[in-house]
């Protein structure tokens, strides 16, 4: 179930409180001086908040408790929350937060890796706030000898407002600005970021990873160059794969209810989908669904307040409309289905991880993405984690391979 997957990823582990690390005490305030002030100061670093240190043994224990293989751990890790300037989906200035994890080592130049997290309805489960699997995998990547960067996205973590769920464009822009902020923070923390950036992400984060990779490959910021790309279980085909799977049984019914509720309420703030929830959702859900996805309700709280099937959630009109999208709904879907429609540089290594047994994001999403990339001359490798792997298992099986494959400091 989507809710179960969200609960699992958010609550699989909590680690002991981290010991106070470098720059402990008050939040460090700073500002970028490298030209990122244009466009409302995008990427300007506002604050560095130390989150503490872990020894190598603590990194390993945290990873193993989360279900992650920890064979790549080499160093202890220092973690920080970065607060920075970015923009809303309609281009207005705002702020966002994210996690920066660095190895405790003598390396003065670190290869950056961006980890884009999966669906989170609750702002308190974001990587820079919660000590869950997203923090654990970022620490694992950093422990191997990298600068691990995990954006919280808009409206999650300590950022204001509601999260524009599945809006690939704004999630990519917030992630790019987090990367810029991390570049500014690194010298204050005794290191520097290499130019070549590896990108990975899980579930929603797979879509975000692909969108961010496309922007970097197109030269969105000349100080960065796209390196390896390794998304896991990304919903790359909302119109052609994900949405149809919700009606033909490939997506678990309760997962479909969770995702559709989150998607429609979030997208309605960006596109004119409906005037009143009662047009889309049946009673009694119409009176509660928008409040449930306000960023203050964990997935485990939401799950018991929605029905088990789309037929019980949606009005007859919208049940049919979602099977045959048109108008603003179709535009919203297609706007987020273009993340694989680009021509990667020939030097970019692309590995797409998926699982035949995934009933949250069916394997067809990854297969369609691979075809699109191949049509543009790329040669992505597709790794199927098997029929026995559900959505969460695909992440846990893929993360160690990604951790071994990405560049590390020498």
Task: Tell me what you see in this structure.
The chain has 410 residues and is an alpha/beta fold. The protein has a single domain (2-236, 337-405), classed as Rossmann fold, CATH 3.40.50. Helix content is 37%, strand content 17%. It has helices at 2-11, 38-41, 56-65, 133-143, 168-188, 204-217, 238-248, 253-267, 289-292, 299-303, 310-313, 316-323, 327-335, 364-375, 391-405, and strands at 28-29, 45-54, 76-87, 93-104, 112-116, 147-151, 196-202, 225-232, 351-354, 381-384. The strands form two sheets. It has an eight-stranded mixed beta sheet with strand order 1-2-3-4-6-5-7-8, with helices on both faces. A two-stranded parallel sheet has the order 9-10. The longest helix is centred in the middle third of the chain and has 21 residues, at 168-188. The protein is globular and about 60 Å long. The relative contact order is 0.14. The model is unreliable at 1-37 (pLDDT under 50).
Q: How does CATH name the architecture?
A: 3-Layer(aba) Sandwich
What structural class do the secondary elements suggest? alpha/beta
What overall geometry do the principal axes of the alpha carbons give?
globular
Count of runs of 4 or more consecutive helical residues: 15
Major sheet size, sense and barrel closure: 8 strands, mixed
- Global mean pLDDT: 91
Q: What is the CATH first-level class name? A: Alpha Beta
Q: In what range is the share of β-strand residues? A: 15-25%
From the N-terminal CA to the C-terminal CA, the straight-line distance is 42 Å
CATH superfamily: Alpha/Beta hydrolase fold, catalytic domain
- Fill in the CATH topology: Rossmann fold
- Low-pLDDT windows of residues: 1-37
Number of domains: 1
Order of helices and strands: HEHEHEEEHEHEHEHHHHHHHEHEH
Residues in helix, %: 25-40%
């Amino acid at each position: 179930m989507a809710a179960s997957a969200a609960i699992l990823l958010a609550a699989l582990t909590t680690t002991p409180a981290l010991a106070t690390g470098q720059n402990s005490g008050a939040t460090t305030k700073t500002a970028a001086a490298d030209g990122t002030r244009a466009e409302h100061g995008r990427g300007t670093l506002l604050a560095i908040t130390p989150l503490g240190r872990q020894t190598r043994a603590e990194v390993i224990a945290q990873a193993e408790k989360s279900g992650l293989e920890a064979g790549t751990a080499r160093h202890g890790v220092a973690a920080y929350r970065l607060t920075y300037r970015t923009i809303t989906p309609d281009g207005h200035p705002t702020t966002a937060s994210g996690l920066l994890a660095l190895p405790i080592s003598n390396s003065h130049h670190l290869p950056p890796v961006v980890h884009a997290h999966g669906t989170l309805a609750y702002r308190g489960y974001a990587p820079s706030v919660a000590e869950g699997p997203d923090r654990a995998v970022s620490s694992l990547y950093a422990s191997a000898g990298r600068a691990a960067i995990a954006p919280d996205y808009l409206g999650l973590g300590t950022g204001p407002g509601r999260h524009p769920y599945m809006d690939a464009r704004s999630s990519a822009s917030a992630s790019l600005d987090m990367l810029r902020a991390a570049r500014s923070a690194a010298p204050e923390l005794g290191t520097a970021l290499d130019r070549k950036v590896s990108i990975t992400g899980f579930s929603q984060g797979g879509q975000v990873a692909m969108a961010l990779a496309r922007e970097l490959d197109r030269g969105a910021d000349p100080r960065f160059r796209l390196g390896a790309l390794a998304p896991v279980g990304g919903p790359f085909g909302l119109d052609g794969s994900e949405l149809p799977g919700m009606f033909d049984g490939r997506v678990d019914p309760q997962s479909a209810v969770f995702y559709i509720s989150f998607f429609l309420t979030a997208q309605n703030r960006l596109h004119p989908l409906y005037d009143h929830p009662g047009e889309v959702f049946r009673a009694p859900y119409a009176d509660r669904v928008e409040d449930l996805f306000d960023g203050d309700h964990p997935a485990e709280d939401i799950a018991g307040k929605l029905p088990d099937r789309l037929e019980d959630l949606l009005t007859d009109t919208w049940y049919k409309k979602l099977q045959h999208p048109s108008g603003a709904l179709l535009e919203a879907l297609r706007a987020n289905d273009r993340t694989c429609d680009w021509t990667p540089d020939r030097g970019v290594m692309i590995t797409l991880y998926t699982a035949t047994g995934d009933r949250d994001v069916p394997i067809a999403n990854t297969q369609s993405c691979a075809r699109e990339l191949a049509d543009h001359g790329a040669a992505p490798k597709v790794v199927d984690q098997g029929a026995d792997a559900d959505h969460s298992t695909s992440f846990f099986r893929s993360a160690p391979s990604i951790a071994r494959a990405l560049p590390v400091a020498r």
